[in-house]
Known about the structure:
The complex is a heterodimer of chains A (318) and B (128).
Chain A: E1 3-10, H1 11-17, E2 19-20, E3 31-35, E4 38-42, H2 48-56, E5 59-64, H3 79-91, E6 100-102, H4 112-122, E7 130-132, H5 145-151, E8 161-165, E9 168-172, H6 189-199, E10 208-212, H7 230-235, E11 243-247, E12 254-258, E13 261-265, H8 289-292, E14 297-304, E15 309-316
Parallel strand pairs in A: 5-6, 6-7, 9-10, 10-11, 11-13
Antiparallel strand pairs in A: 1-15, 2-12, 3-4, 5-14, 8-9, 12-13, 14-15
Chain B: H1 2-37, E1 49-54, E2 57-59, E3 62-65, E4 69-75, E5 84-85, E6 100-105, E7 109-114, E8 122-127
Amino acid sequence: MGDFIKDNFNKDGVDRRGFLKCMAWAGTGTLCVIQGGVLKSFALSDMANRALATAKADLSFVQISDSHIGFDKAANPDVTATLDAAIAKVNALEAAPSFVLHTGDLSHLSKPAEFDTLDQRLKSLRTDKIFYVPGEHDVLNDDGVQYRERYGKGSKGDGWYSFDQKGVHFIGLVNVMNLKAGGLGNLGKEQLEFVEDDVKHLKSSTPIVVFAHIPLWSVYPEWGWGTDDGAQALGYLKRFGSVSVLNGHIHQVMQKVEGNVTFHTAMSTAFPQPQPGTAPSPGPMKVPADKLRGLLGVTDVNFVRGKETLAVVDSTLA
Amino acid sequence: MKKTMLKVVVCAVMVVAMAGWAAGIGTHLFAAAMTSANGLGSGPANGPAEVKIDNYSFMPGDLTVAAGTTVTWVNHDDVPHTVRTLDGTIKSKALDTDDKFSMTFDKPGTYEYFCSIHPKMTAKVVVK
């Protein structure tokens, strides 16, 4: 298995500590676990906890991201093949996920044929439903009209929505539209009002999962890796005991725990991007062919009710 | 004894580094002056002008041209970019790798623009 990171967040412990931070880079083989408020690192070989998390989970789902169908440059000339490998990875899970979240950049250039290819490939996913949010590559030239026709049925505004699964409240947000010169990702007033209103009726004990394409937290603003009004959206979720934020866009695993909020970004199924500041720009990173699949992957998320435990497992395609 | 030697080595390294830094600045200033004298970069261009899009940057980021000049943007990146003025009056489609976008600037003024996909990319064209 190419699994290389696993997180177990115990809510009580994190609350006591106030702030804990764990970052893991794709390919470094780090395993970070927070238990009782203490951050521990383990070697990759310790996969026993993963099997345990899956077996006890009340709800398990998978996040895939940044498929960039249509991309054909040196960083990965065959993004359809690596998407297929990601699908095979998901289909090989012990238990089929309840659903799959795709956190955007389905296509590279918003071309109908690219969306068609993605749809056709994803049909083979062993799951009941796929939820989407758009990446900036999915809303080129038409302000997202085509994206919403294909993937945004029943959504509001530019394509945001929420739903409940087994007591967990999911909120899908769009932060790739109406971007301002010099700025970062953008939610906008209307969407912020939606978030505020959407969670009003929920009990504070309801676990919340927010997913959007661009990171809602400030990962690396110099490369546009953040959302200008992301903090405002998260402000409406302060009273909740467990908030998980899942993003894509940066094509690598990064995570952070801040109070009751855990942030996590997923790998791409198409091509890796450099770690912040390690290259002149965040453009597609070319790696030797035999290394590529070790930097692409899928994310498996398990919830265990009662223990209020969230387990996030990133698996590479290698 | 050892400490003193270490200090000497550190000082020597710093002197070399600073000399290199100063030389680097000198070269840079000289290059900028040359570019200006050729009518590229900061001086108004007479013929068609080109802005390269490379590594998520518009180059030059500050282009001055004479009224009537046609400016062409060429995307050299592996990802798409756009050219859009802040007021939205000039708006290219998404430019894939090697795609071009041209605009003739007849009216003098400052045209600030950005990439609407990667809004950290900002630049301007000054028309005189």
